[in-house]
Amino acid sequence: MLWRRRLATAIIAAVSLNVAAVNLNGDYSVGTMDGAVAATVAPNVQAAVLRNWGLVVAGDEFNYLGAPNPLKWKVYDSVGHDGNGIRSPKAVKIMYGAAFITGDANGTTGGMSARFAQQKYGRWETRMRTTVRDVEYHPVVLLWPNDNNSPNCAEIDYAEALGNVNVIKFSLHYACTRSNFQTRAAKAIDLTQWHNYALEWTRTGITGYIDGVPWFIDTNPAHLPTVGMHQTLQLDWFPDGTVTTQTQMIVDWVRVYR
Predict the structure, then answer these.
(1) CB 206 within 8 A of CB 199
(2) Going from the N-terminus, what domains does the chain have, and what CATH number goes with each?
């Protein structure tokens, strides 16, 4: 919608983004790159359009007001991640053509999981930004197993921000162990700007995209999920003993393709 784009333009200054890949060390292997990655990206480019993914088959444009559509979303009402804080339905509101997940100064935050496209394989794309972020609030766009479990404890975090407010990460979890077996990639990026984060999951591998540019690939059969999964959106609180400031995760839309 034109008015929504004007609103976004009014509150977000355009910048040129350095997105050179950052390989992580430690007890992790790193996702491979699909050729050279451009030094800058166009934040309005969609992987779905650039790569001809076809028609949207499910998702949410958030073109309504109030609580998330209960036919599309199950909103969290529970203790927070790892027992920290609270996930409250009141923290998630649809307004201005987007979903706003707000984390307050006391660790009350929110999240929701999709009732749509609970499937094995497919393509997902999500347009997301944050406000200036407290390091204690970690936004994550991910796929989670439909029955909350899988033989290899699969989890696909295709846009996740942790303690560094200027870095976005991709993490593919593939083993049920405290050693955190993952393949990962990371990029320097301005999370306060709109970006399109996409995931393509096929029988032969998983590819992640930012604004149409591939930045993560894993084709190891042992790393791939073996069960159906679904979209979730979360703003998780990781308290570090310092004062927490309000943070918002804002999602313009979620779209699923075959």
Answers:
(1) yes
(2) 2-257 (2.60.120.200)
Provide φ and ψ at 105, rounded to 5°: -70, -10
Condensed to tens digits (0 to 9), the pLDDT of residues 45-70 reads 999 999 999 999 999 999 999 999 99
φ/ψ of 10, rounded to 5, equals: -70, -30
DSSP 119: B
Report pTM.
0.84
- Kindly state the tokens that stand for 63: 């073109």
Please classify residue 20 by burial: count the beta carbons closer than 10 Å to its beta carbon, then call 0-12 exposed, 13-18 middle and 19+ buried.
exposed
Element (DSSP H or E) covering residue 3: helix 2-11
Tell me the pLDDT tens digit for each residue of 137-154: 999 999 999 998 899 999
User: Within the chain, which residues score under 50 in pLDDT?
Assistant: 1-41
